[in-house]
Amino acid sequence: MSESQNIKSVLTEDRVFPQSAAFVSQARLDADRLAALHAAAARDHVGFWGDLAKKELGWQTPFTRVLDDSQAPNYRWFTDGKLNASANCLDRHLGARGDKLAIRFEGEKGDTRNYTYRQLHAEVCRVANALKALGIGKGDRVVIYMPMVPEAVMAMQACARIGAIHSIVFGGFSSTALKDRIEDAGARLLITADGGHRGGQIVELKRAADDALAQGCKTLDKVLVLKRTGHDVAFDARRDVWWHEIVPKQSERCDPQWVESEHPLFLLYTSGSTGKPKGIQHSTGGYLLGAMTTCQWVFDLRDDDVFWCTADVGWITGHSYVCYGPLACGATILMYEGAPTVPDAGRFWKIAQDHGVTIFYTAPTAIRALMRLGDDWPKRYDLSKLRLLGSVGEPINPEAWMWYHKVIGKEQLPIVDTWWQTETGSIMISPIPGAVPTKPGSCTKPLPGIAVEVVDEAGDVLTGKDAGGYLVITKPWPSMLRTIWNDNERYLKTYWGQFSNRYYVAGDSTHRDEDGYYWIMGRIDDVLNVSGHRLGTMEIESALVSHPAVAEAAVVGRPHEIKGESVFAFVICRGERPRGAEAEQLAKTLRDHVGREIGALAKPDEIRFADNLPKTRSGKIMRRLLRSIAKGEEITQDVSTLENPAIVKQLAGQD
Ligand code: WTA
Q: In angstroms, rounded to a whole number, what is the distance separating the alpha carbons of residues 189 and 166?
C-alpha cells in the first residue's frame, strides 16, 4: 500500500468489529485482564517486565537486576541472570510435552515429517554436537542459508544451545549478499543445503554459497551441507561437510551452554536508508521474553494449537514466530517449504485443512495474492479448525482485511494486524484478540509494557485525539535490538540520534485516531517495503551503479496492487541514453545484475533511462518528484528550483 492510497482508505474507514463472544469466553486475556496488565506496566514499567521474566523464562542463574540503563540507549536487561534459549524452547517441555508434536512439516512436493519435542530435542543436541566437532563454540558466528525445512530450525536451536550466534540469510538473497553478510558477521561456519524447492524449481543454495566463498569470506572454515534436493552439487572435501555424515553419529545429549542474558542470540541483517544492510543484534533473555509473551497475548497461544506462521526463517517473523516464541510456549508449529500456488491456488488452504491449523499468520501481500485467485479456492477446504488470523509486514489495506475477515474468517475469527520490526524483536502494536475491537487497516493499540507515542518534527509528543507524525517508543523494552553488529555509532545515530536520545525512532509515520488506535502510514526513510520485505533504495542504487554501463541511478517505490510497493529505477548511462530495443535489452541486463548483487526480490519492475536526474542547485536528487513520476501522477510540484527543469518531461517518459 502506498502512503497516499493508505491515507485515503484510512480516512474513510470507520468500521469497527467487536471481538467475537465465542473467542472472548475462552481467551487468555479478556478486557479486564488486559487492563490489569496495562495498569501494572504503567505503575512500574521495569518491575512489570522483571516479574514476567521470572515467571515465563527458565533461568539457570536468576537475575537480580532487571534493567541496566547506565549506558543508555544501550540498554541491558536481566544482566546477571543466566539461561539458554534452546533449553527454554525444548528441555523444559520434555516432561509434560515430550510426546507432543513440536514441528509438522510439509514440503512442496508433498513430503511430510513430524517431530515430537523429544525427537526435536535429540536432533538439536546432535546438531549442536556436530557444530562443536566442527570447532564452533560460544560467541562464534554461524551463518545459516537454508530452505524452510525443519533442519533450519534445528540449526538455529543448535547454535543457541552452544552459545554460538546465528545469522540467517534468506535463501532468496544472492551470493554477493551472502558474502557481504558472512564477512560483516565474521562467521566461521556456514550451514546450507544443496538446494531448496520453490515453485517447482530448485533454489541453488549450494551453488550460491560456493560463489560467495569464491569471492572472499576468509573467516569461514567449514560449510555444513544438508542434502535436501539430492541434485548434483560441487563438493570440496577439504571444506564441505555433509550433514548426513556428521550429524547422525553424534550423541543425542548435549548440555546447554548457560549464557548471560545479554549474550547475543542472533544477528539478522536488514536494510536501512543508508549504506550496507546492518546486523541487528538481539539478546538471549530479553528477546525470548518478548517472543514468548507476545505469543501468549497476541496469538492467545495454547497447548492444542497448531500455529502456522508462513514467514521464512530468513526474516525476523520467522525467528520470533516460527522458531523461538511458539516453541518456548510448547506449541506445535507448522512449516511449509514451497510456494503458495503449487500445484494450485488452493495449496495454503489444503495445508491448513490437512494439518488442522488453528492460528494462521501471514503478510498482506500474500492475502492480496490469494484474494485475487478467487473465493472458490478456500471454499473447497475445511478451515473449521482455524480460530485466529494474523497479518504482518506492511500496512494491510481495508479491502484485503475484509476479504480475510469474510472469506477465511467466516466473519467469526479475530484478525490481529501486528506492527513491529526486525529491531523490535517482537510485536509492539496489535489487537489483543479477546479484548480489543478491530478496525480494518489499523494495528490498534500498543501491547502492555510498550510505550508508543506520536511526535512531531521537533520531537514534541502529540497528545491530541487525532495525531499524525513519527512513531517513537519512549521506554526501553526487553526484546529491543541491543546494537548494530560492529557499528554501535550507527545504532545510536539511526535509532536515537534524531531526537537527542529521548526516543527510539521506528522510521515509520503513523496516525493515531480519536480512539487511540494506530494507523501505520509507511516508512519515512528511503526504505521500500516490497511484498513485506524491507529494501533500501540506496542498496539497489549501489547495485545498479556497480554495473559498468550505469553512471547514476535513483530508486523509488511505486504502489503495487499485490506487492504493496514495487521497485522503480531511473538510470543514467555512461554513454548515450539507450532507446527502443537497446533500452529493453539493457533494462533486462540491469535487472539480472541487481538479482545477482542482492537477490531476485530487489529486481526493479521498471527501469527508465534518462540523460539526468532531477537535481536541486545544491545537487540533491528530488526524490519526491521521482516518486510522483513513477506513480504516473501529473506533476504539480514546483520544479523551478531544479537545476535542469527540462529533464522532468524526459523522466516522465514523454520524450
Ligand atoms: C512495516 C517485519 C504496517 C513497517 C516484522 C516497519 C508494518 C517495517 C506492519 C518492518 C503492520 C511491519 N502494519 N506496517 N502491521 N508490520 N510493517 O523489519 O514499515 O521486516 O517499519 O519487520 O515493516 O519490517 P521488518
A: 10
Residue 511 CA to residue 519 CA, distance in Å, equals: 5
Q: Which long-range contacts (CB under 8 A, 24 or more apart) does 67-72 make?
A: 67/476, 69/476, 72/476, 72/501
Which cell is 301 given? 497461544
* Rounded distance from Cα 573 to ligand 1 centre (Å): 34
> Does the CB atom of residue 508 touch ligand 1 within 6 A?
yes
- Measured distance between the N- and C-terminal CA atoms of the chain, rounded to whole angstroms: 29
Rounded to whole angstroms, the Cα distance separating 10 from 310 reads 26
Largest CA distance in the chain: 74
pLDDT digits (tens, 9 = 90+) for 292-303: 999 999 999 998
Backbone conformation region of residue 357, classed left if phi is above 0, alpha if psi is from -120 to 50, else beta? beta
Distance CA 179, CA 156 (A): 20
By DSSP bridging, strand 306-309 and strand 141-145 are: unpaired
- C-alpha of residue 272 to centroid of ligand 1, in Å: 13
Angle among Cα 206, 605, 580 to the nearest 5 degrees reads 115
28: DSSP letter = S
Q: Which residues have a Cβ under 8 Å from the Cβ of 488 and sit 6 or more positions away?
A: 74
Cα separation, 23 vs 27, whole angstroms? 6
Residue 473 CA, chain-centre distance (Å), reads: 19
Q: What is the pLDDT of residues 196-252, one digit of tens each?
A: 999 999 999 999 999 999 999 999 999 999 999 999 999 999 999 999 999 999 999
Q: Does ligand 1 have an atom closer than 6 angstroms to the CB of 316?
A: yes
Cβ neighbors of 39 (< 8 A, separation 6 or more) are none
CA of 421 to the centre of ligand 1 (A): 5
Q: How many residues does the chain have?
A: 655
Topology, domain 531-652: GMP Synthetase; Chain A, domain 3 (3.30.300)
C-alpha cell at 504: 527510539
Structure confidence at residue 11 as a pLDDT band (50, 70, 90): low
Atom of ligand 1 nearest to the CA of 417: 15
**What are the grid coordinates assigned to 534, written together?**
524491507
Residue 429 CA: which ligand 1 atom is closest?
15
Give the SS3 label for residue 306: strand
Sequence ranges of the domains in the chain: 531-652
Amino acid, res. 627: R
Going through 467-539 in order, the beta strands assigned E by DSSP cover 467-473, 483-484, 504-512, 518-523, 527-530, 533-536
Pairing of the two strands 527-530 and 533-536: antiparallel
Contact 138, 120 (CB under 8 A): no
In the chain, the amino acid numbered 264 is P
Hey, what's the cell of 626?
521521482
pLDDT on residue 466: 86
The candidate with the shortest Cα–Cα distance to 67, out of 58, 83, 80, is 80
DSSP class per residue in 63-82: -S-SEE-TTTTS-EESTT-E
Average pLDDT over residues 123-148: 98
The reply to whether 356 sits in an annotated binding site is no
Rounded Cα–Cα distance for residues 221 and 214 (Å): 13
Q: Judge if the beta carbon of residue 397 lies within 6 A of ligand 1.
A: no
Ligand 1 centre from 590 Cα, in Å? 28
Q: pTM of this prediction? A: 0.94
